């Protein structure tokens, strides 16, 4: 049929758009929690503690969300590999949206006592459960719809969507943070959480119209769908799971930049919170632009060299960024912050959605990507708390945090360097022990 090629060409774009929009909405919810934890939750839910202890406890609740990410990865990864990618994409969006709106409904510690922080932690656990399957599902959907020579480009829209979500979250918090302190603590902090309801509705309407991937549909027709994806994954692909876990520690740069640096600047150094929020906005605007550019370059040059270059760059720039904050130099805070997070770090975030997914065959791709990344992210998610403990109350303690983060970047480099290059492997042969083996025609037919 004459229209069939046009339909096939449109599917990758539609999948990428749905992944971008859904991820933006999903991570809007996730990032507004991080911003609120850094700025107000210590006073609202832990007022009996000292300011430093209250901030530490609030940041701990941010890290708690990462505890259920691996569990979400196992459950939602199983569902996605058994029943399809689309079903998981809709479920994660609704789960994140409901838990986020409910955070905005919570009473303060002064109103409900210890019940308030307990409910906060419970909802944060639900957010983490949802996030455990979100990116892997979106990445699998985009990768399996994409042309073979443009897999990094199409999957990168998932990550540029997360950056857009952070832009929206920060932009919403800018006027809220400018409210008088009494109004901010009384009701202002709730506005971003309530606003997510409309965004989640829009995301649901988009994702429900997606078509399942041709790759998964062929798995169903050929009877190759794994009944127990986790068992197959751990039996045949455990080394790649471990590699993804270690490689995913690069997310420590994001958590340090997003949560710890903001808290350190405002609560320890005494800088104004509004300009610090603008650093995040500008860095993420740059990231939305650079992510697809790095991804296009990865489709030409490969995954590993860009990933390694980005990791090494972050290992150096983290010293400059936290040092600029400690010195109170706004010029260098903006310049280095945008350069590190908006340009250099994106060389890794543009590549990993394709790189991690390409390590696994279709029958365990969602499980492998989700479990590997979410365990790595879970470790990285507690780093703001650990960093706050290292830094203490002293302005000069930033150096220890920088050394710690740089060391994680170097460990990440070792993991990536040990992996095989995947950008030229045909989609049907991804994750196979012998990529040169003949693949049945059913597996490659459009």
TrEMBL record:
Domain of life: Bacteria
Transmembrane portions of the chain: 27-46, 52-76, 88-109, 184-206, 241-263, 275-294, 306-326, 332-356, 368-391, 397-417
Gene Ontology cellular-component terms listed: plasma membrane
Keywords from the named record: Cell membrane, Membrane, Symport, Transmembrane, Transmembrane helix, Transport
Topology relative to the membrane: Multi-pass membrane protein
Pfam families according to UniProt: MFS_1, Sugar_tr
Protein name in UniProt: Putative proline/betaine transporter
Species: Amycolatopsis acidicola
